[in-house]
Amino acid sequence: MQAAPHHGAVIGVDLGGTKLMAGLFDRTDRVVSRERVEVAGLDSDGLVDALVETVAALRSESEDDVDAVGFGIPTTIDQRTGTAVMAANLPLEDLPLRDLLGARTGLPVFLDNDANVAALAEQRLGAGAGVTDHLLMVTLGTGFGGGIVVDGRIVRGAIGAAAELGHMSIDYDGPPCVAPNCPGIGCIETFASGNALARDARAYAGANPDSPLGRAVAGGEPARGETVLRLAREGDASCIALLERLGERLGVALANFVNIFNPGMIAVGGGLSPALDVILPAARRVMVERALPPGNRFVEVVAATFGPDSGMVGAALMARDGLADTPHA
Predict the structure, then answer these.
(1) Are 135 and 262 members of one domain?
(2) For the chain, how many structural domains are there in total?
(3) Does the pLDDT of residue 3 top 90, yes or no?
(4) Which site in 8, 101, 122, 214 is 20 to 30 Å from 109, CA atoms measured?
């Protein structure tokens, strides 16, 4: 038995809480085409349809044969069966997604948590490339995703459900998790995520209707990260403070991760990447204050090289790896 040779294109798909991003990677792993699809409000069948249709659209644009597709999905995964067990922010539960997507796309399918594949992209090709084999990834988007790479390999745990870092509780008596399907109390995601920022922005706008944020929301702009970031860029101190507060809460989480995992690097990406120049300085400061030495002095905390594309790139890498590890006679 030996690894099967594959020299065609692969597709990488990153499914988030509100959108999916997918890319067609040619045989040199260059992105030659991409798709972005809004998925907010779709039910389980609609999400699967969106994934299948996106793969079909990209496949039709490829000049090379497409050898496989990798999916980064924001769920806990049972790798024994390829089942998406539970998604905190999407209606996916106990779905045999690997077999289902394989049957509907007609391609070899490789499946993992979205933050796991993002971590792989950053360690191998992004911020950690040539720097560290021990990288921890945080994805700040709708939720708070986590992925861990040790010695260049994704840490999946006993059956594939490891690294749900956003659902570590940091407040025993805190509020219920902002993720609709999480049973946790005081989860990190409740304090540092796109959902958390939107909640804080709504509260601030409601209490301060004459503020720039209050006026923007009253005028029809959504009380979420894009609006907060726009106003922060325009110099609004209150919106800068909202982002810095999120950064401080992120720093508490990072201190825990440093103490537990002692990573060489923490890369932060996801949908809130455009705001990291404001968020990360606050996060680094709190991490250094609260984590134990020497880990707090050793670790680098950086913005992910691929930003919101980390999951898409990592899903394609996973597909390549999966093909290389698949034996044939």
Answers:
(1) yes
(2) 2
(3) no
(4) 122
Which DSSP symbol is given to 272? T
**Cα–Cα–Cα angle for 4, 57, 86, rounded to 5 degrees:** 75
Q: Do 235 and 295 share a structural domain?
A: yes
By C-alpha distance, which of 165, 95, 53, 257 is closest to 87? 95
pLDDT value of position 131: 93
HEC assignment per residue over 133-172: CEEEEEEECCCEEEEEEECCEECCCCCCCCCCHHHCECCC
- Which residue range forms the structural domain that includes residue 205? 127-304
The model's pTM is 0.87
Q: Closest Cα to residue 100, out of 91, 92, 109? A: 109
Q: Which residues contact 85 (CB under 8 A, 6 or more apart)?
A: 75, 76, 77, 78, 93, 94, 161
Residues 40 and 188 placed together within one structural domain of the fold: no
In degrees and rounded to multiples of 5, residue 227 shows phi and psi of: -70, -45
CATH of the domain at 162: 3.30.420.40
